[in-house]
Design brief:
Layout: E1 2-10, H1 14-32, E2 35-40, H2 45-51, H3 57-65, E3 68-73, H4 88-98, E4 103-110, H5 122-125, E5 129-136, E6 146-151, E7 154-159, H6 165-181, E8 185-190, H7 196-209, E9 216-221, H8 222-231, E10 238-241, H9 243-256, E11 264-268, E12 274-278, H10 295-307, H11 312-327, E13 330-331, E14 341-342, H12 345-355
Parallel strand pairs: 1-2, 1-3, 3-12, 5-10, 8-9, 8-10, 13-14
Antiparallel strand pairs: 4-5, 4-11, 6-7, 11-12
Helix pairs in contact: 1-10, 1-12, 6-7, 8-9, 10-11, 11-12
The chain binds nicotinamide-adenine-dinucleotide.
The site of nicotinamide-adenine-dinucleotide (NAD) has 21 residues, from loops.
């Protein structure tokens, strides 16, 4: 197969971790006789420095014309004082909008080899954690009308939380389909006891559940979900929720694994075009030292192959290679423990590549 991939390394550790992920892609290309054609695009702070904008029109065109997009991370202290409309993160919102990326998929997996890295007790995480969070990405309070006005001598601010039927239905379908491919359990997270948007959310999810009778469905209030994730994370298979709840719940869930550098994510559109990235940021504190963990980015590439290119065996190969390298006791600094082999970012990339 021939696939065009837009590569957006970004800032901080972005270029280092993306380099290792590309090594892995090249190896998969060789092994399965696929041709991956890369277009490199500046995004975030490095683009602001070169072009004065966080992503250029030409960069955006390359993303739209690609079969898929791989992102490192953007941002850093150097650009913290940029005006709001040219901040590095603006480019991410722009790419999500232009590519119609409405579904964010975050697998949260605690590799048994890394169980001691979890902040939770062994009796809670001993059996491993393997859940998938499906977050709506283009609606809700983050995109609704914003206002800040003076009323009776004080400032009053509002963020409109808005959802329409079709937005809920399309993210619901992504979640039910994902559940069908996994453990056939879906928890829909809302705040239907208080919010009108949540009551609509629940109504649409209930309509959908009749189409997926094989899926064991439940409604969970967001505050209860936050507690249950700590108390008994293994009860969850797939969680679906709106934008802001998903933002918070998915960060909480990723911490259960104790290692932000391990977590991949995918943002999907109605077509097979998606954007794949590790969940962490640009880690300016360790940038340029070749010590970052590239596994979150490498596992994001596995998601790209699975979700955008339907290359299941190839994706399995990458995940198995990561598993093998961890079983062989190799660790980057962030997950290092006594008695293990400490390796650099580039060495970790090579080990995974060689294990494929
Ligand atoms: P961060 O995720 O960059 O770093 C948090 C901590 O985790 C740091 O100590 C860092 O060294 C460590 N860390 C992160 N990724 C790691 C990896 N792969 N290997 C080893 N250690 C890793 O979060 P932050 O410090 O809050 O943000 C730094 C910058 O990144 C900010 O400018 C922020 O806006 C930006 N950011 C970007 C994205 C994105 O591009 N999607 C996401 C979050 C934050």
């Amino acid at each position: 197969m021939n696939k065009k991939i837009a590569i957006l390394p970004g800032d901080g550790i972005g270029p280092e971790i993306v380099r290792e992920a590309v090594k892995v892609l090249d190896k998969i290309g060789d092994k399965y006789n696929h041709s991956f054609e890369y277009s490199y695009v500046d995004i975030g702070g490095c683009s602001i420095d070169k072009f004065g904008v966080p992503i250029t029109e030409e960069g955006m065109r390359l993303c739209k014309e690609a079969d898929s997009v791989l992102l490192g991370a953007v941002g850093g202290p150097k650009w913290d004082d940029c005006p709001a409309d040219i901040r590095p993160e603006k480019a991410l919102l722009a790419v999500r909008k232009e590519l119609g990326l409405f579904a964010n998929i975050r697998p949260t997996k605690l590799f048994p080899q890394l169980a001691s890295a979890s902040p939770l007790k062994q009796r809670i995480v001993g059996g491993g954690i393997d859940l998938l969070i499906v977050r709506e990405l283009t609606g809700g309070a983050y995109f609704g009308e914003k206002n800040s006005i003076e009323v009776d001598g004080e400032t009053v601010a509002t963020d409109l939380m808005i959802y329409s039927t079709h937005e809920i239905e399309r993210i619901g379908r992504v979640a039910f389909e994902a559940a069908m491919k996994r453990g056939k359990k879906l928890a829909s997270v809302d705040k239907a006891n208080v919010l009108e948007t949540s009551r609509l959310w629940r109504k649409i999810m209930h309509n959908l559940k009749d189409e997926y009778p094989q899926v064991e469905y439940s409604d969970v209030l967001v505050d209860n979900c936050a507690m249950q994730l700590i108390k008994n994370p293994a009860q969850f298979d797939v969680i679906v929720t709106e934008n802001m709840f998903g933002d918070i719940i998915s960060d909480e869930a990723s911490m259960l694994t104790g290692s932000i550098g391990m977590m991949p994510s995918a943002s999907l559109s109605m077509t097979t075009l998606g954007m794949y990235e590790p969940i962490h940021g640009s880690a300016p504190d360790i940038a340029g030292q070749d010590i970052a963990n590239p596994l979150g980015t490498i596992l994001s590439v596995a998601m790209m192959l699975r979700y955008s290119f339907n290359m299941t065996n190839e994706a399995d190969d990458i995940e198995k290679a990561v598993d093998k390298v961890l079983s062989d006791r190799y660790r980057t600094a962030d997950i290092m423990e006594d008695g293990y082999h400490k390796v650099s970012c580039s060495h970790m990339g090579t080990l995974v590549t060689d294990a494929i």
